[in-house]
Amino acid sequence: MRLYPAYIAYILNCRWTREAQGWANVPSLPKETRDAVIAEMLGLLKTLVDQWIESGKNIRDANVENPWERSIAWTSPLRPNPISTVLLLYAESNPRVASIDSNSRMRIDILPIPFDAKYPLIWARDRAIYEFVMLLDSPMRERLFRCDACATYYVRAKAPRKDRPIKRGTFCKKCRNKGGIRRMADRRNQQKKERIGWAADAWPMRFIGLRFMPRIRRAP
User: Fold this and answer.
1) pLDDT tens digits along 6-25
2) What 3-state class would DSSP assign to 185?
3) Domain range for residue 198?
4) What would the pLDDT profile of 185-220 be if each residue is shown by its tens digit?
5) CA torsion sign, 48 to 55 to 94 to 99?
């Protein structure tokens, strides 16, 4: 359960490879149907993960992100439907199974519907929602990120701080240099703005000094 974010990142990065087909555990189906099932499953899972990650980004500045503020109730003009609606519909239509884990704690899981060859896409959507629910149940869920440069999903080694938003974007290992370039450009822009502000403040003082400067009379 703790490593579930890394598992989700691995699956989403695999896309249409054999690993994705093995993860989907799709029963014996014709190739076209099997590809459609995997596409539906990965597509919905990606949509849910992306919306959840985007809910932690700043509305005014997408380069500022706080993963601790991610919410399943979040919406936007491009994503008008909250994730909570999807999860409630899933909970209402799927069976609940009680179990006891290794720590002697009782768990109640909502499992996807059994596979039905007549409705494979419904099963695929249920499976995608189930995987997303498992991600939300992980204590490491806030470590899952999507690279702002290449859109690769990755997991941070350490949990981000709750009281310190991540500024100037989030980048995977391959794109860290791009993050450094962006931070340097932002720092230079900030310094430029500060210098312009200082110059603007000093400009009126120049005229005040000239106004009260004693006039020097020329010798006749």
Assistant:
1) 999 988 997 655 555 555 56
2) helix
3) 173-214
4) 566 655 566 666 666 665 565 555 555 555 555 555
5) positive
